[in-house]
Design goal:
Layout: H1 5-12, H2 16-31, E1 37-38, H3 50-62, H4 77-91, E2 100-103, H5 105-117, E3 123-127, H6 133-140, E4 144-148, H7 158-164, E5 169-175, H8 187-204, E6 209-213, E7 236-241, E8 254-258, H9 265-278, H10 286-293, H11 302-319, E9 331-332, H12 341-350, E10 353-354, E11 356-357, E12 367-370, H13 375-390
Parallel strand pairs: 1-10, 3-4, 3-5, 5-6, 6-7
Antiparallel strand pairs: 2-8, 7-8, 9-12, 11-12
Helix pairs in contact: 3-10, 4-10, 5-9, 11-13
Length: 393
Protein backbone atom coordinates (compact mmCIF):
# COMPACT_ATOMS: atom_id res chain seq x y z
CA UNK A 1 0.00 0.00 0.00
CA UNK A 2 1.38 3.43 -0.92
CA UNK A 3 -0.58 5.55 1.56
CA UNK A 4 0.07 5.73 5.30
CA UNK A 5 -1.39 2.83 7.31
CA UNK A 6 -3.29 5.16 9.63
CA UNK A 7 -4.86 6.86 6.58
CA UNK A 8 -5.76 3.50 5.07
CA UNK A 9 -7.68 2.74 8.28
CA UNK A 10 -9.24 6.21 8.34
CA UNK A 11 -10.45 5.88 4.74
CA UNK A 12 -12.04 2.49 5.46
CA UNK A 13 -13.83 4.00 8.48
CA UNK A 14 -14.73 7.26 6.73
CA UNK A 15 -17.65 9.33 7.94
CA UNK A 16 -21.12 7.83 7.65
CA UNK A 17 -22.36 11.34 6.95
CA UNK A 18 -20.38 11.56 3.73
CA UNK A 19 -21.19 8.00 2.76
CA UNK A 20 -24.90 8.67 2.95
CA UNK A 21 -24.53 11.99 1.13
CA UNK A 22 -22.67 10.24 -1.70
CA UNK A 23 -25.34 7.53 -1.78
CA UNK A 24 -27.88 10.31 -2.19
CA UNK A 25 -26.06 11.66 -5.23
CA UNK A 26 -26.16 8.21 -6.83
CA UNK A 27 -29.86 7.76 -6.04
CA UNK A 28 -30.71 11.20 -7.43
CA UNK A 29 -29.00 10.30 -10.70
CA UNK A 30 -31.16 7.16 -10.96
CA UNK A 31 -34.53 8.30 -9.61
CA UNK A 32 -34.42 12.09 -10.04
CA UNK A 33 -33.93 14.69 -7.29
CA UNK A 34 -37.64 15.03 -6.49
CA UNK A 35 -37.91 11.37 -5.50
CA UNK A 36 -34.95 11.24 -3.08
CA UNK A 37 -35.32 12.52 0.50
CA UNK A 38 -31.84 13.39 1.69
CA UNK A 39 -31.40 14.23 5.39
CA UNK A 40 -27.74 13.21 5.55
CA UNK A 41 -25.72 16.43 5.54
CA UNK A 42 -26.01 19.50 7.78
CA UNK A 43 -25.80 21.86 4.82
CA UNK A 44 -27.89 25.00 5.58
CA UNK A 45 -30.69 25.67 3.10
CA UNK A 46 -31.84 29.02 4.52
CA UNK A 47 -30.57 32.03 2.57
CA UNK A 48 -27.82 34.21 4.09
CA UNK A 49 -28.99 37.60 5.39
CA UNK A 50 -29.42 40.20 2.64
CA UNK A 51 -26.81 42.39 4.35
CA UNK A 52 -24.23 39.66 3.71
CA UNK A 53 -24.90 39.84 -0.03
CA UNK A 54 -24.80 43.65 0.02
CA UNK A 55 -21.45 43.78 1.81
CA UNK A 56 -20.00 41.10 -0.42
CA UNK A 57 -20.93 43.06 -3.55
CA UNK A 58 -19.57 46.32 -2.13
CA UNK A 59 -16.25 44.79 -1.09
CA UNK A 60 -15.85 42.96 -4.40
CA UNK A 61 -16.43 46.19 -6.33
CA UNK A 62 -14.12 48.38 -4.23
CA UNK A 63 -11.27 46.02 -3.35
CA UNK A 64 -7.74 46.63 -4.57
CA UNK A 65 -4.68 44.42 -4.88
CA UNK A 66 -3.63 44.92 -1.25
CA UNK A 67 -7.04 43.78 -0.05
CA UNK A 68 -6.28 40.31 -1.40
CA UNK A 69 -2.78 40.01 0.06
CA UNK A 70 -1.75 38.17 3.21
CA UNK A 71 -3.33 39.59 6.36
CA UNK A 72 -1.70 38.91 9.76
CA UNK A 73 -1.87 35.20 10.63
CA UNK A 74 -4.23 35.97 13.52
CA UNK A 75 -6.51 38.03 11.30
CA UNK A 76 -7.12 41.71 10.61
CA UNK A 77 -6.90 43.70 13.88
CA UNK A 78 -10.12 45.63 13.18
CA UNK A 79 -12.02 42.40 12.50
CA UNK A 80 -10.68 40.81 15.69
CA UNK A 81 -11.75 43.92 17.62
CA UNK A 82 -15.22 43.70 16.16
CA UNK A 83 -15.51 40.02 17.05
CA UNK A 84 -14.11 40.59 20.55
CA UNK A 85 -16.58 43.41 21.27
CA UNK A 86 -19.52 41.23 20.25
CA UNK A 87 -18.55 38.08 22.14
CA UNK A 88 -17.62 40.08 25.26
CA UNK A 89 -21.36 40.61 25.74
CA UNK A 90 -22.16 37.02 24.82
CA UNK A 91 -19.57 35.60 27.22
CA UNK A 92 -19.96 38.27 29.93
CA UNK A 93 -16.18 38.77 29.85
CA UNK A 94 -13.82 41.55 28.85
CA UNK A 95 -12.40 40.02 25.66
CA UNK A 96 -9.86 41.96 23.60
CA UNK A 97 -8.67 41.53 20.03
CA UNK A 98 -5.57 39.80 21.44
CA UNK A 99 -7.76 36.94 22.67
CA UNK A 100 -9.19 36.23 19.20
CA UNK A 101 -7.68 34.40 16.21
CA UNK A 102 -9.58 34.31 12.92
CA UNK A 103 -9.66 30.79 11.44
CA UNK A 104 -10.82 28.70 8.49
CA UNK A 105 -14.13 27.80 10.10
CA UNK A 106 -14.70 25.94 13.37
CA UNK A 107 -12.82 22.92 12.02
CA UNK A 108 -9.78 25.11 11.44
CA UNK A 109 -10.17 26.59 14.92
CA UNK A 110 -10.32 23.16 16.58
CA UNK A 111 -7.24 21.94 14.72
CA UNK A 112 -5.33 25.09 15.66
CA UNK A 113 -6.30 24.68 19.33
CA UNK A 114 -5.37 21.00 19.43
CA UNK A 115 -2.06 21.62 17.65
CA UNK A 116 -1.24 24.22 20.30
CA UNK A 117 -2.05 22.16 23.39
CA UNK A 118 -1.42 18.47 22.61
CA UNK A 119 1.71 16.41 23.10
CA UNK A 120 1.85 12.87 21.68
CA UNK A 121 -0.33 10.53 23.73
CA UNK A 122 -2.38 13.27 25.39
CA UNK A 123 -6.06 12.42 25.78
CA UNK A 124 -9.07 14.54 24.87
CA UNK A 125 -12.46 13.63 26.31
CA UNK A 126 -15.77 14.21 24.55
CA UNK A 127 -19.31 13.11 25.49
CA UNK A 128 -20.93 10.61 23.11
CA UNK A 129 -22.83 10.86 20.84
CA UNK A 130 -20.32 13.23 19.25
CA UNK A 131 -19.34 14.81 15.94
CA UNK A 132 -17.17 12.06 14.36
CA UNK A 133 -14.59 14.42 12.87
CA UNK A 134 -13.30 15.03 16.42
CA UNK A 135 -11.46 11.72 16.15
CA UNK A 136 -9.50 12.92 13.13
CA UNK A 137 -8.87 16.36 14.58
CA UNK A 138 -7.38 14.91 17.77
CA UNK A 139 -5.28 12.23 16.06
CA UNK A 140 -4.02 14.86 13.60
CA UNK A 141 -1.94 16.21 16.48
CA UNK A 142 -0.83 13.00 18.19
CA UNK A 143 -3.69 12.87 20.68
CA UNK A 144 -6.19 10.18 21.60
CA UNK A 145 -9.94 10.85 21.64
CA UNK A 146 -11.70 9.27 24.61
CA UNK A 147 -15.51 9.20 24.67
CA UNK A 148 -17.71 9.14 27.77
CA UNK A 149 -21.43 8.59 28.16
CA UNK A 150 -24.14 11.22 28.50
CA UNK A 151 -27.37 11.12 30.51
CA UNK A 152 -30.57 9.72 28.98
CA UNK A 153 -31.50 13.14 27.55
CA UNK A 154 -27.98 13.55 26.08
CA UNK A 155 -27.05 16.19 28.67
CA UNK A 156 -23.63 16.17 30.36
CA UNK A 157 -22.89 13.28 32.71
CA UNK A 158 -20.41 14.94 35.07
CA UNK A 159 -19.63 11.63 36.83
CA UNK A 160 -18.78 9.96 33.51
CA UNK A 161 -16.46 12.82 32.59
CA UNK A 162 -14.83 12.63 36.02
CA UNK A 163 -14.25 8.89 35.65
CA UNK A 164 -12.80 9.44 32.18
CA UNK A 165 -10.12 11.90 33.29
CA UNK A 166 -6.63 10.48 33.70
CA UNK A 167 -3.12 11.86 34.10
CA UNK A 168 -3.00 12.04 30.29
CA UNK A 169 -6.09 14.23 29.92
CA UNK A 170 -5.32 17.57 28.29
CA UNK A 171 -8.73 18.71 27.14
CA UNK A 172 -12.48 18.20 27.04
CA UNK A 173 -14.44 19.05 23.89
CA UNK A 174 -18.10 19.92 24.25
CA UNK A 175 -20.56 20.96 21.55
CA UNK A 176 -23.68 22.97 22.42
CA UNK A 177 -26.13 23.29 20.72
CA UNK A 178 -25.25 19.72 19.97
CA UNK A 179 -24.70 17.78 16.79
CA UNK A 180 -26.30 15.20 16.46
CA UNK A 181 -28.87 15.45 19.30
CA UNK A 182 -29.92 19.13 19.37
CA UNK A 183 -29.31 19.28 23.14
CA UNK A 184 -28.25 22.59 24.74
CA UNK A 185 -26.18 22.31 27.93
CA UNK A 186 -27.45 24.29 30.90
CA UNK A 187 -25.51 26.91 32.86
CA UNK A 188 -25.67 24.65 35.91
CA UNK A 189 -24.11 21.68 34.08
CA UNK A 190 -21.35 23.88 32.67
CA UNK A 191 -20.64 25.27 36.14
CA UNK A 192 -20.42 21.72 37.51
CA UNK A 193 -18.06 20.80 34.70
CA UNK A 194 -15.92 23.86 35.45
CA UNK A 195 -15.68 22.91 39.13
CA UNK A 196 -14.72 19.36 38.20
CA UNK A 197 -11.98 20.47 35.82
CA UNK A 198 -10.61 22.87 38.41
CA UNK A 199 -10.38 20.08 40.96
CA UNK A 200 -8.84 17.61 38.52
CA UNK A 201 -6.32 20.14 37.16
CA UNK A 202 -5.10 20.89 40.69
CA UNK A 203 -4.93 17.22 41.65
CA UNK A 204 -3.04 16.24 38.49
CA UNK A 205 -0.82 19.37 38.45
CA UNK A 206 -1.68 19.97 34.80
CA UNK A 207 -4.06 22.29 33.00
CA UNK A 208 -7.09 20.61 31.49
CA UNK A 209 -8.62 22.85 28.83
CA UNK A 210 -12.35 23.04 28.15
CA UNK A 211 -12.93 23.54 24.42
CA UNK A 212 -16.40 24.51 23.28
CA UNK A 213 -17.36 23.91 19.65
CA UNK A 214 -20.16 26.44 19.05
CA UNK A 215 -21.15 26.81 15.37
CA UNK A 216 -24.85 26.40 16.24
CA UNK A 217 -24.90 28.92 19.11
CA UNK A 218 -27.48 31.19 17.42
CA UNK A 219 -29.71 28.38 16.17
CA UNK A 220 -31.86 27.79 19.25
CA UNK A 221 -35.59 27.44 19.80
CA UNK A 222 -38.33 28.23 22.31
CA UNK A 223 -36.52 31.19 23.86
CA UNK A 224 -33.55 29.11 25.03
CA UNK A 225 -30.25 30.94 25.60
CA UNK A 226 -26.85 29.29 25.30
CA UNK A 227 -24.95 30.05 28.55
CA UNK A 228 -21.56 31.74 28.79
CA UNK A 229 -18.64 29.32 28.91
CA UNK A 230 -16.04 31.82 30.10
CA UNK A 231 -17.86 32.53 33.37
CA UNK A 232 -17.85 28.80 34.22
CA UNK A 233 -14.17 27.94 33.82
CA UNK A 234 -11.06 30.06 33.34
CA UNK A 235 -9.11 27.56 31.23
CA UNK A 236 -11.64 27.60 28.41
CA UNK A 237 -11.48 28.21 24.67
CA UNK A 238 -14.24 28.74 22.12
CA UNK A 239 -14.11 27.45 18.54
CA UNK A 240 -16.85 28.58 16.20
CA UNK A 241 -17.77 29.62 12.70
CA UNK A 242 -20.28 31.64 10.69
CA UNK A 243 -21.17 28.58 8.60
CA UNK A 244 -24.54 27.94 10.18
CA UNK A 245 -25.74 31.28 11.57
CA UNK A 246 -25.00 33.08 8.28
CA UNK A 247 -25.50 30.02 5.99
CA UNK A 248 -22.02 30.28 4.47
CA UNK A 249 -20.29 26.93 5.27
CA UNK A 250 -18.37 26.91 2.00
CA UNK A 251 -16.66 30.22 2.80
CA UNK A 252 -14.70 28.65 5.69
CA UNK A 253 -14.65 31.58 8.09
CA UNK A 254 -14.66 31.37 11.89
CA UNK A 255 -12.58 32.19 14.93
CA UNK A 256 -11.25 30.93 18.23
CA UNK A 257 -11.32 32.93 21.45
CA UNK A 258 -9.26 32.27 24.57
CA UNK A 259 -10.72 33.09 27.97
CA UNK A 260 -8.93 36.30 29.08
CA UNK A 261 -8.67 34.77 32.58
CA UNK A 262 -6.69 31.77 31.29
CA UNK A 263 -3.43 31.22 33.19
CA UNK A 264 -1.28 30.82 30.07
CA UNK A 265 -3.29 33.14 27.81
CA UNK A 266 -0.32 34.73 25.99
CA UNK A 267 1.42 31.39 25.43
CA UNK A 268 -1.81 29.91 24.09
CA UNK A 269 -2.43 32.76 21.67
CA UNK A 270 1.17 32.74 20.41
CA UNK A 271 1.03 28.97 19.85
CA UNK A 272 -2.31 29.19 18.06
CA UNK A 273 -1.21 31.99 15.75
CA UNK A 274 1.82 29.90 14.81
CA UNK A 275 -0.36 26.80 14.39
CA UNK A 276 -2.68 28.72 12.04
CA UNK A 277 0.33 29.28 9.80
CA UNK A 278 2.18 25.99 9.96
CA UNK A 279 -0.90 23.81 9.58
CA UNK A 280 -1.26 25.35 6.14
CA UNK A 281 -4.30 27.52 6.86
CA UNK A 282 -1.90 30.53 6.90
CA UNK A 283 -4.81 32.89 7.59
CA UNK A 284 -8.59 32.96 7.45
CA UNK A 285 -9.92 34.09 4.04
CA UNK A 286 -9.23 37.81 3.71
CA UNK A 287 -12.43 38.79 1.91
CA UNK A 288 -14.65 36.85 4.33
CA UNK A 289 -12.89 38.42 7.30
CA UNK A 290 -13.79 41.87 6.04
CA UNK A 291 -17.38 40.82 5.38
CA UNK A 292 -18.05 39.31 8.81
CA UNK A 293 -16.23 42.16 10.54
CA UNK A 294 -19.29 44.27 9.73
CA UNK A 295 -21.87 41.54 10.40
CA UNK A 296 -21.53 40.87 14.13
CA UNK A 297 -24.92 39.91 15.54
CA UNK A 298 -26.47 39.15 12.14
CA UNK A 299 -28.02 35.72 11.53
CA UNK A 300 -30.31 33.81 9.22
CA UNK A 301 -34.06 33.65 9.75
CA UNK A 302 -34.26 31.14 12.62
CA UNK A 303 -38.06 30.94 12.26
CA UNK A 304 -37.50 28.90 9.09
CA UNK A 305 -35.61 26.25 11.07
CA UNK A 306 -38.23 26.39 13.84
CA UNK A 307 -40.89 25.59 11.24
CA UNK A 308 -38.85 22.70 9.83
CA UNK A 309 -38.19 21.32 13.32
CA UNK A 310 -41.88 21.40 14.17
CA UNK A 311 -42.82 19.87 10.83
CA UNK A 312 -40.51 16.89 11.17
CA UNK A 313 -41.23 16.37 14.87
CA UNK A 314 -44.98 16.35 14.29
CA UNK A 315 -44.65 14.05 11.29
CA UNK A 316 -42.43 11.49 13.03
CA UNK A 317 -44.50 11.60 16.21
CA UNK A 318 -47.59 10.78 14.15
CA UNK A 319 -45.68 7.86 12.61
CA UNK A 320 -44.79 6.57 16.10
CA UNK A 321 -41.09 7.37 16.42
CA UNK A 322 -39.50 8.12 19.79
CA UNK A 323 -37.24 11.17 20.12
CA UNK A 324 -36.39 14.21 22.21
CA UNK A 325 -37.44 17.51 20.68
CA UNK A 326 -34.20 19.39 19.82
CA UNK A 327 -33.52 22.64 21.66
CA UNK A 328 -31.03 23.88 19.10
CA UNK A 329 -29.09 23.15 15.88
CA UNK A 330 -30.98 21.52 12.99
CA UNK A 331 -30.75 17.84 13.84
CA UNK A 332 -33.13 15.25 15.25
CA UNK A 333 -31.81 12.05 16.85
CA UNK A 334 -34.69 9.54 17.07
CA UNK A 335 -34.47 6.01 18.43
CA UNK A 336 -34.17 3.25 15.88
CA UNK A 337 -37.08 0.79 16.23
CA UNK A 338 -34.52 -2.05 16.15
CA UNK A 339 -31.16 -2.27 17.94
CA UNK A 340 -29.26 -2.41 14.64
CA UNK A 341 -29.47 1.22 13.55
CA UNK A 342 -27.36 0.54 10.46
CA UNK A 343 -29.82 -2.10 9.21
CA UNK A 344 -32.70 0.28 9.90
CA UNK A 345 -31.02 3.10 7.97
CA UNK A 346 -30.52 0.72 5.02
CA UNK A 347 -34.25 -0.05 5.07
CA UNK A 348 -35.00 3.67 4.90
CA UNK A 349 -32.58 3.96 1.99
CA UNK A 350 -34.69 1.39 0.13
CA UNK A 351 -37.50 3.99 0.38
CA UNK A 352 -35.05 6.63 -0.96
CA UNK A 353 -34.76 8.25 2.50
CA UNK A 354 -31.19 9.08 3.54
CA UNK A 355 -30.35 9.52 7.21
CA UNK A 356 -27.18 8.72 9.17
CA UNK A 357 -26.93 5.81 11.64
CA UNK A 358 -26.29 6.83 15.22
CA UNK A 359 -23.37 4.40 15.29
CA UNK A 360 -21.48 6.93 13.17
CA UNK A 361 -21.69 9.34 16.11
CA UNK A 362 -20.96 6.84 18.86
CA UNK A 363 -24.71 6.61 19.54
CA UNK A 364 -25.84 3.17 18.40
CA UNK A 365 -29.56 2.50 18.45
CA UNK A 366 -30.40 5.96 17.10
CA UNK A 367 -30.24 7.76 13.76
CA UNK A 368 -29.64 11.38 12.79
CA UNK A 369 -31.89 13.51 10.62
CA UNK A 370 -30.57 16.84 9.32
CA UNK A 371 -33.77 18.82 8.82
CA UNK A 372 -32.12 21.80 7.10
CA UNK A 373 -33.94 20.80 3.90
CA UNK A 374 -36.93 21.99 1.89
CA UNK A 375 -40.28 21.58 3.62
CA UNK A 376 -41.45 19.41 0.72
CA UNK A 377 -38.60 16.97 1.40
CA UNK A 378 -39.82 16.56 4.98
CA UNK A 379 -43.44 16.07 3.91
CA UNK A 380 -42.55 13.75 1.05
CA UNK A 381 -40.49 11.44 3.26
CA UNK A 382 -43.22 10.76 5.84
CA UNK A 383 -44.94 7.86 4.05
CA UNK A 384 -41.59 6.06 3.76
CA UNK A 385 -40.72 6.71 7.41
CA UNK A 386 -44.10 5.26 8.43
CA UNK A 387 -43.81 2.21 6.16
CA UNK A 388 -40.40 1.22 7.50
CA UNK A 389 -41.45 1.69 11.12
CA UNK A 390 -44.62 -0.36 10.56
CA UNK A 391 -42.69 -3.35 9.26
CA UNK A 392 -40.89 -3.61 12.64
CA UNK A 393 -43.99 -3.24 14.80
Amino acid sequence: MTIARHMETAVSESSWIRRMFEAGNSLRAIHGPDHVFDFSLGNPNVDPPERFRTLLRQLAETSGARDHGYPPNAGYPDVRRSVAAYISKQQQSNISEQDVVMTCGAAGALNVILKAILDPGDEVITPAPYFPEYTGYVTNHGGVLKTVSTLSDFSLDISAISNGISNKTKGVIINSPHNPTGQVYTADSLSQLGLLLNEKSKALHRTIYLISDEPYRKIVYDGITVPSLFTCYNESIIATSYSKDLSIPGERIGFLAVNPASTYRIDLINAMVLANRILGFVNAPALMQRVIGSLQGEQVDISAYTRKRDLICEGLADCGYEFLRPKGAFYLFPKSPIPDDIAFVRELQERLILVVPGSGFGGSGYFRIAFCVDDETIKGAMPGFKQVLNQYQ
